[in-house]
What does this fold into?
Amino acid sequence: MLGVFDSGLGGLSSVRKLTEILPREDIVYFGDTGRVPYGTRGRETIIRYALQDLRFLERFSPKAIIVACGTVSSVALDALRQATEVPVIGVVEPAVRAALAASRERKIAVLGTPATIRSGSYAAKLKAADPALSVLGQACPLFVPLVENGHIDPADPITKETVKRYLEPVLAFGADTIILGCTHYPFLKRAIGEYVGEGIRLIDAGTESALETKRILEEKDMLSQAGGERRFYVSDSPQGFAETARVFLDREIGEAVKYVDIEKY
Ligand code: DGL
It folds into this structure.
């Protein structure tokens, strides 16, 4: 069983990719919908929430935990790794590797929540790999509420205007590669792609973390041969989550969503 968690719906971008490339793995997903967003909170709060999310998922004896949240991966990954024996896979390292492979001009922009950009997590890893690289960090606080409320259509005027606001400086900077450093943002990939045009590579942190999970399971000879069950837990209304998740995953998950009181962990 794989444990996957996010502050809300965004981690479903990882689940979608995991389902495609590892269809036989059972997955338990926790979305902290009662406390989203994490990305506008302080470090201590994010770490406390992340440790509770971890403790909840540990009850299912997962063989790996995927932190499908750019904010938690940026701020709390070390704390999580110290707190458990289970391998913990974040989104920052895999996305950075993919961006380094994709960028020709060595100008990379990182889109993330305020906490992610403030942490400098992506920029530090990019620069450590190639000090000559130029990196622009762009916080996009309005993207998460857009996604959580299902405003992902590129033709939606609110979506269009918000994308323009955040991506204008990225175009002015001359980025050839953009890291979607928050797992909510892949749901805005079409809108972002239409605005920036085809020449710019978009790296999706959710997808890259799923590919990394496959690599690690193969390496450790831990791939599952049978299974494929999906279970979802949330800390707010299961019904609201199931409705939006149906659109994001392109499948019905109503029965599989349950409420959990995450403050107990
Ligand atoms: N899923 C979070 C991330 O990837 C964004 C939502 C939030 O701010 O909690 O950073």
In short: The domain at 92-205 is CATH 3.40.50.1860 (Rossmann fold). The chain is about 45% helix and 15% strand. The CA atoms of residues 112 and 181 lie 5 Å apart. The chain has two domains: 2-90+207-264, 92-205.
